[in-house]
Backbone:
C-alpha cells in the first residue's frame, strides 16, 4: 500500500511536470501567434522564419553553430557569445537539418523546462496559487518575447531555475553539473554559484557539519573557466572576448553601475524613439528589480533567491554600454518568485495588467522590426 | 540628470547589498532577533533621511548663494567643507600624506580600496562610506542610550542636531570616527572589553583625536547619570533645545557655504 502511494505520488508529480511543461510552451506559442496576427495585418508578405533568423544576435549564433569560433577575420569577434546554445543548435541540426528550426526548438523546450521547474521550486515554499502566479507572470513578462526567439534567454532561465531547485533539494551534484552548464550559457551564468554556496552554508550550519558533496559546487566556476579555455585555444588569449566586446560593434567595457545608468540616460535623451524601447526600459527595470529585491526581503522570500537576484542585477548593470538590459533582467527567475509572494490583490492585478499589456505590445513591435534588443 | 539617475541607482543597489548582508547574519543566527533587525533598520533609514535633508539643504543654499540652479553641485560644495583632502587621499593614498601628518590612514585606505572596486568612483565611494558609517553610528548610539533610557529616539535626534552634525554626511573621516567612538560607548555599556579596545584602536587609526575613545573607560559608571541629565525635563524644553540646535546648524551650514 505504502509503495503504491509512493508510486502514485511520483506519477502525479510527473503528470504535473509534463502539464506545466506543455502549458509553458503553449502559452508562448499563443502569445507569439497573437504577434504574428498583428504582423499579417500590417505586413502580409513578411516571412516569419526568415525574420527570426535575422533578428538581433541570431545570425551570430547560427554562424557559430555552423562554423564554430574563428581564430581571425571578420567572424573572430563572435567569440563574445558563450558556447552552450550554439553547440546545442549544432547537435539538433544534425536531426532537423535547419539551424533556425533547431534554435527555436531549443528555446521552446527550454522554456517548458523552466516553467516546470519553476513550479516545482515554488511548491517547496508556497501553495499552488502562488506557484501558478509565478508561472503566469513569467509567461507574460514584457520582454518575454526573447523566450520565443533564438536567444539564450530560455536556456539560461531553464538552467538557472533547475540549479536553484536542486540546490534547495540539497542535491549538490545535480545543482553543480547544471550550474556548470549555466555558466557556459551567458556572462551572468557563473553568478549561479552564489545561491548554491548560500544554500550550502545554511545547510551546513543547520546540520552543524560541512556537506562534503557541496564541494561539487566547484564545478560551477569551471563553466566560466571552460569558456576562457576556448578563448585561449581559439585565439591565444584567455580574455580575447574582453577585447572584442570593447571594440565595434558593441563598445562594451565594465563600468560602475552609476556610470552605466548615466550612459543609458544620456544616450536615450538624444534619441527619443530608441529611448522608449531600449534605454528607458532598462533604467526603469533596474529600479523595479531592486525594489522587488527589497520586497523579497520584506516578504521573507528565500534568501538564496534574493542573493542570486542581487548578484545578477549588479553583474548585468556593470556593462558600460548596454542595449539589452531589459532582456537580461527578464531572465532572472527570482523576480517572478518575489512578484508571486505579494499578497495584496490590487498590486497583483496591476502587475498582471501592466506586464500582460506590455508583453503583447513588445511582441508585436518586435515582429514588425522595431529595435527591441 | 544622468549622473543623478546613476548615483541614485548605485545607492539603491548598495543599500540592497547591505540589506542582504544583514539578512545573511540573521539566517546564520549571528543576529538572533528579527524584530531588532526591523527596529535598527528603521533607525538606519532615518539616518539616511536626515543625511539627505542636510545635503539637499546644502545644495539649495549653495545655489541661492551662487545665483544658479545646479542641483548636482555637490562636488563644489565638498570643497567648502574642507573634504577635498580626504577625497585626494582616497584617490591616491600616499605614505607622505598619511604619516607626514595630513591624516590618519584608515579612511583614505578604505575609500581607495572600495573606490578601485567601483571602477575609480572615489567620490561616490567616499560618500557611501560616510553614509554607511552615519547609519551604523545612529544604530550604536540608539543601542547605547537604549540601555539606560526607555525612549532613546529623542536623544538620538538631539545628537543628530548637534552643531556641525551635517559633517557626518560629507565624504570625510568624521562619520567613521564617530562610528568607532559610538562603538566604544556601546561596548562599555555591554561590558565587552575586547570590542572596546578594537573600537579605540580603529578610532585612533581614523582620526588624530581618536584616543578620546579610551577616555570613555574611566567614565563608564557615569553613563546612566549622563544620559539622565541629557534628557530634557519636558516635551516643551526638548523641542526648544532641538529647534535652537537645528537653527545653529542651519547658520553654520550657510556660513560654510557662503565661504566658497
Residues:
Amino acid at each position: 500500500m505504502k509503495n503504491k502511494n509512493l508510486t502514485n505520488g511520483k506519477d502525479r508529480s510527473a503528470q504535473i511536470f509534463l502539464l506545466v511543461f506543455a502549458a509553458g510552451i503553449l502559452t508562448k506559442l499563443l502569445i507569439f501567434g497573437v504577434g504574428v496576427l498583428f504582423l499579417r495585418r500590417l505586413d502580409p508578405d513578411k516571412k516569419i522564419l526568415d525574420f527570426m533568423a535575422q533578428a538581433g544576435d541570431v545570425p551570430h549564433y547560427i554562424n557559430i553553430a555552423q562554423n564554430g569560433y574563428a581564430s581571425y577575420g571578420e567572424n573572430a569577434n563572435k567569440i563574445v557569445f558563450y558556447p552552450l546554445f550554439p553547440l546545442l543548435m549544432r547537435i539538433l541540426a544534425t536531426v532537423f537539418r535547419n539551424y533556425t528550426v533547431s534554435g527555436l526548438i531549443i528555446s521552446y523546450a527550454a522554456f517548458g523546462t523552466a516553467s516546470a521547474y519553476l513550479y516545482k521550486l515554488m511548491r517547496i515554499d508556497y501553495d499552488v496559487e502562488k506557484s501558478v502566479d509565478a508561472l503566469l507572470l513569467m509567461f507574460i513578462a514584457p520582454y518575454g518575447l526573447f523566450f520565443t526567439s533564438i536567444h539564450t534567454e530560455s536556456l539560461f532561465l531553464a538552467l538557472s531555475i533547475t540549479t536553484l531547485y536542486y540546490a534547495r533539494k540539497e542535491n549538490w551534484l545535480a545543482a553543480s553539473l547544471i550550474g556548470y552548464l549555466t555558466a557556459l550559457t551567458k556572462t551572468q551564468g557563473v553568478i549561479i554559484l552564489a545561491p548554491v554556496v548560500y544554500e550550502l552554508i545554511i545547510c551546513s550550519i543547520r546540520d552543524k557539519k560541512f556537506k562534503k558533496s557541496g564541494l561539487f559546487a566547484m564545478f560551477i566556476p569551471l563553466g566560466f573557466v571552460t569558456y576562457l579555455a576556448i578563448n585561449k585555444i581559439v585565439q591565444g588569449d584567455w580574455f580575447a572576448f574582453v577585447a572584442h566586446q570593447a571594440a565595434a560593434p558593441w563598445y562594451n567595457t565594465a563600468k560602475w553601475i552609476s556610470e552605466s545608468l548615466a550612459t543609458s540616460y544620456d544616450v536615450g535623451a538624444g534619441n527619443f524613439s530608441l529611448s522608449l524601447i531600449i534605454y528607458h526600459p532598462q533604467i526603469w527595470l533596474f529600479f523595479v528589480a531592486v525594489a522587488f529585491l527589497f520586497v523579497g526581503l520584506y516578504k521573507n522570500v528565500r534568501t538564496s533567491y534574493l542573493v542570486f537576484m542581487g548578484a545578477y542585477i549588479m553583474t548585468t548593470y556593470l556593462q558600460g554600454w548596454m542595449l539589452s538590459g531589459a532582456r537580461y533582467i527578464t531572465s532572472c527567475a527570482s523576480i517572478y518568485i518575489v512578484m508571486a509572494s505579494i499578497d495584496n490583490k490590487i498590486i497583483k492585478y496591476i502587475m498582471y495588467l501592466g506586464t500582460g499589456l506590455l508583453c503583447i505590445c513588445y511582441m508585436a513591435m518586435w515582429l514588425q522590426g522595431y529595435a527591441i534588443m | 540628470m544622468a549622473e543623478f539617475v546613476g548615483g541614485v541607482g548605485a545607492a539603491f543597489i548598495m543599500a540592497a547589498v547591505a540589506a542582504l548582508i544583514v539578512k545573511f547574519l540573521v539566517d546564520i543566527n549571528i543576529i538572533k532577533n528579527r524584530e531588532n533587525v526591523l527596529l535598527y533598520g528603521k533607525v538606519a533609514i532615518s539616518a539616511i533621511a536626515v543625511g539627505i535633508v542636510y545635503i539637499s539643504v546644502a545644495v539649495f543654499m549653495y545655489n541661492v548663494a551662487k545665483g544658479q540652479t545646479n542641483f548636482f553641485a555637490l562636488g563644489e560644495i565638498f570643497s567648502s567643507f574642507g573634504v577635498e583632502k580626504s577625497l585626494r587621499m582616497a584617490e591616491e593614498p600616499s605614505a607622505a600624506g598619511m604619516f607626514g601628518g595630513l591624516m590618519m590612514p584608515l579612511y583614505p585606505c578604505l575609500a581607495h580600496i572600495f573606490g578601485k572596486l567601483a571602477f575609480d568612483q572615489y567620490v561616490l565611494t567616499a560618500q557611501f562610506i560616510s553614509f554607511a558609517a552615519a547609519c551604523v553610528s545612529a544604530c550604536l548610539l540608539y543601542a547605547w542610550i537604549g540601555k539606560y533610557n526607555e525612549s532613546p529616539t529623542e536623544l538620538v535626534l538631539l545628537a543628530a542636531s548637534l552643531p556641525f552634525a551635517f559633517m557626518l554626511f560629507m565624504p570625510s573621516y568624521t562619520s567613521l570616527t564617530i562610528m568607532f567612538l559610538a562603538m566604544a560607548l556601546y561596548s562599555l555599556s555591554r561590558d565587552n572589553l575586547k570590542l572596546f579596545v578594537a573600537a579605540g584602536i580603529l578610532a585612533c587609526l581614523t582620526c588624530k583625536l581618536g584616543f578620546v575613545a579610551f577616555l570613555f573607560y574611566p567614565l563608564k559608571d557615569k553613563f546612566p547619570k549622563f544620559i539622565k541629565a541629557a534628557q530634557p525635563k519636558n516635551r516643551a524644553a526638548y523641542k526648544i533645545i532641538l529647534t535652537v540646535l537645528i537653527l545653529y546648524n542651519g547658520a553654520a551650514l550657510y556660513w560654510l557655504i557662503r565661504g566658497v
Observations:
- The first helix of chain B runs from residue 2 to 27.
- Chain B touches chain A at residues 1-3, 5-7, 9-10, 12-13, 16-17, 19-20, 23-24, 27-29, 118-119, 121, 124 (CB under 8 Å).
- Chain B has a mean pLDDT of 84.
